[in-house]
Amino acid sequence: MHTPLATPTPATSADPAAFEAARNGAFVAALPGTAVLEVSGADALPFLQGQLSNDVEGLRPGAAQWTTYNSPKGRMLATALLWRTATGFRMALAADVAEPVRKRLSMFVLRSKAALATADLAAIGVGGPLARDAVAAALGIPVAPKSVTAFDGGEAIGLPDGRVLVVVATDRAHSIAERLAAHATRAGEDAWRWLAIRAGIADVRLATQEKHIAQTANWEVVGGVSFTKGCYPGQEIVARVQHLGILKERAHAFHVDAPPPEPNTRIFLAGTDQTAGLVVDAVAVPGGGSDLIAVVHLVALDGDLRLGMNDGPALAPLPLPYALPASAPKRIKL
Questions:
Q1: Which of 4, 287, 327, 329 is 20 to 30 A away from residue 181, measured at CA?
Q2: In 3-state terms, what secondary structure has residue 161?
Q3: Quick one: average pLDDT of 129-148?
Q4: d(CA 158, CA 165)
Q5: 333: exposed, middle or buried (Cβ count in 10 Å: 0-12, 13-18, 19+)
Q6: Domain spanning 16-198 has what CATH number?
Q7: 183 conformational bin, left if phi > 0, alpha if psi -120 to 50, beta if neither
Q8: Furthest-apart CA pair in the chain: how many Å?
């Protein structure tokens, strides 16, 4: 008798064993919140090159990269992991934005020989410092960051932050998950999202569409934006912000002694009615409280930040695993 993978834990609780594995071992979790889009056809490459923020032309077969899909105003409609296959491209993104993004991209195919479809694939996440060891032991394949390794029944993609995304045919998801669970602790999807928060990855979901541009969510820092490729939706805004060097807010991680707030919960400076930022994602952690990632005004970072109201729970900053560039106007002429 097989024991199924753990379902996502309630928003107000956290599984200590899963989070211990996320810190010091390896866990495996079903990811119902992740979907995969497939883009195929002779013009798939030039089509995506003209739609996404990263350099698709430079993506070799078997490689993966972060990217964003933006509105004409430069606001992110989706964040995605993009990889190249033998026949086209695949994009892993939040499940609740997958169909809206597919429909929107399809509007711009026009005469291009490109087709977009939602793949009949299940997503499984393997996280923790021993994630790649667990995948190697379970599936017999090596996985490296930003690379794709095919195996009998699916693909394993190494995320730039060390997690491993395994995508498999839906009818094989259970058997593959069981093989992985023999070498990793079973966990809920919250452990996967927690690692993203601690890695400084501000994932866009339906609730946070069109709230932030790529730089305010640090997506150019984690490698999701190319500033040397050609045009794409929102490129003028993204480029202007980059080249002028004027940035008033950035994504930062925090801990709060409170249940996980909903996306877009406002952050205030204590004792004022001034909104200092917006929550992007949050998960409950063992021992109480929540870790979250939020886009916050830079001038407010040294202040007493509060969640939800100006006398709400205090936010304690958490370190990011990367350095943020200084924000200062640049003396250039556009």
A1: 287
A2: coil
A3: 97
A4: 6
A5: exposed
A6: 3.30.1360.120
A7: alpha
A8: 68
Task: Tell me which residue has tokens 């991680």.
Answer: 253
Contact between 278 and 264 under an 8 Å Cβ cutoff? The reply is: yes
Among the listed residues 8, 10, 11, the one whose alpha carbon sits nearest the alpha carbon of residue 281: 11
pLDDT in tens, 216-273: 999 999 999 999 999 999 999 999 998 887 789 999 999 999 999 999 999 999 999 9
In order, the DSSP letters of 63-123 are: BEEEEEEE-TTSBEEEEEEEEE-SSEEEEEEEHHHHHHHHHHHHTTTTTSS-EEEE--EEE
pTM for this entry: 0.93
Interatomic CA distance for residues 293 and 254, integer angstroms:
6
**Residue scoring higher pLDDT (298 or 245):** 298
Note whether 296 and 276 are within 8 A (CB).
yes
* Model confidence pLDDT, tens digit, residues 162-220: 999 999 999 999 999 999 999 999 999 999 999 999 999 999 999 999 999 999 999 99
Give helix 173-181 / helix 131-139 axis angle, nearest 10°: 120
Residue type, 208: T
pLDDT, mean of residues 46-67: 97
Q: Among residues 5, 25, 31, 197, which one has the least CA distance to residue 128?
A: 25
Distance between first and last Cα of the chain: 66
Q: Where are the domains of the chain?
A: 16-198, 207-318
Question: Which residues pair with residue 67 across a beta bridge?
Answer: 80
In 3D space, the residue among 254, 262, 251, 252 whose CA is nearest the CA of residue 306 turns out to be 254
Helix/strand/coil for 314:
strand
